[in-house]
Amino acid sequence: MKILITGGAGFIGSNLAKRLVKDGHEVRVLDSLLRGNKLDKSTYDSVQFIKGDVRDLSTVTEASKGCDVVYHFAAVLGVDIVADNPVETMDVEVIGTRNVVEAAAVNNIKKILYASTSGIYGHSAIENALTEEVLVDPRTSYAMAKRYNEIYLASHHEEKGLNVISLRFFNVYGENQDNRMVVPRFFEQALNNEDITVFGTGQQTRDFTYIDDTVEACVRLMDVDGCHIVNIANEEEWQIKDLAVKIKDITASQSSIQYIEAPKRRYDYEVERRVGSSEKLLHMTGYKPNTGLDEGLQKIYATNYVNLNSIL
Ligand SMILES: NC(=O)c1ccc[n+]([C@@H]2O[C@H](COP(=O)([O-])OP(=O)(O)OC[C@H]3O[C@@H](n4cnc5c(N)ncnc54)[C@H](O)[C@@H]3O)[C@@H](O)[C@H]2O)c1
Predict the structure, then answer these.
(1) Is the beta carbon of 115 within 6 A of some atom in ligand 1?
(2) Which member of 34, 73, 164, 284 has the lowest number of beta carbons within 10 Å of its beta carbon?
(3) Is 200 in the same domain as 142?
(4) CB proximity list for 307: less than 8 A, separation 6 or greater
(5) pLDDT tens digits, the chain, 312 residues: what are they?
(6) Which of 32, 112, 231 should be mutated for ligand 1, with most atoms under 8 A from CB?
(7) Residues 163, 242 within the same domain
(8) Kind and range of the H or E element at 43?
(9) Structural domain tally of the chain?
(10) Three-state secondary structure readout of 210-251
């Protein structure tokens, strides 16, 4: 298959590109390099890399020419970055996705897999793990734009028969992630023996999904037709304070764990509980994420940090 990944130089995109190249696909990456380039050398050498902006229609049309499938992952993200740049966040989402859809029509592309987010669930009450049927509650420009795009893509399935899959990722973590996200931020603080800073009581929960499991789900969903919204979740609910303790233990750090008040601009993001159900994914693909948090953290410590630590 010929596959375009927008945002393919980012954390999830670069890991997906590596896997798709390994599987023998012809991979093209379109990325503005806003967050640098996370593709390793061998993957970078194996893909066709296009530096460009998804907000530019001609760039997206050119980049997707001849492709069978597009993984549309380009986005502005990170709580602080989104809070500081709500307009750019929405532009990249809304204009970028509109361009991907327009380009798909011109280039006769049959399928788009779009990176949505579990952030869409917002403060939706959860007695049980969140399923795709739960009423969504997007609160931020980022989550609202993601939800808008899910609906926009679904309308193109209805009207034009485009196959569209919106992937609701739940806190993906793993190799190559940068410290906009909590897992690498805690690792960095722990390895520097600085305070590990937890917002609020640390009792808020998240569902951490390991990158290889996320990539596996993305790859399997490439074979699914139709219009679907699919959670990609590990189905484990962890308190953030437990994450801090685990990372402190794994790194044998001297850090202390400090509980601090979250900056006001993070309030909309400070969801108390989030855990997802991957039953639909299992039903559709025969697969669901299965790497436990301890195992995932050990893996990224071994690959990302152990050598680094012995050099320092
Ligand atoms: N990481 C997570 O836990 C998570 C959770 C939910 C949803 N998502 C979604 O998954 C996708 C990938 O996330 P990630 O963690 O790899 O983020 P990332 O920031 O590492 O990757 C995003 C990539 O998009 C590129 N980009 C940004 N603006 C662009 C533009 N205008 N044109 C072209 N490229 C542009 C960036 O340079 C970056 O390489 C995003 O759509 C994100 O919203 C991620």
Answers:
(1) yes
(2) 34
(3) no
(4) none
(5) 999 999 999 999 999 999 999 999 999 999 999 999 999 999 999 999 999 999 999 999 999 999 999 999 999 999 889 989 999 999 999 999 999 999 999 999 999 999 999 999 998 878 889 999 999 999 889 999 999 999 999 999 999 999 999 999 999 999 889 999 999 999 999 999 999 999 999 999 999 999 999 999 999 999 999 999 999 999 999 999 999 999 999 999 999 999 999 888 887 778 899 999 999 999 999 999 999 999 999 999 998 887 555 444
(6) 32
(7) no
(8) helix 41-46
(9) 2
(10) EHHHHHHHHHHHCCCCCEEEEEECCCCCEEHHHHHHHHHHHC
Is 0.85 topped by the overall pTM? yes
Residues 28 and 38 in one domain: yes
Same domain, 68 and 25: yes
122 in the same domain as 152: yes
Domain with 256, as residue range(s), is 182-206+236-274+293-311
CA of 252 to the centre of ligand 1 (A): 31
Parallel/antiparallel/unpaired status of strands 48-51 and 26-31:
parallel
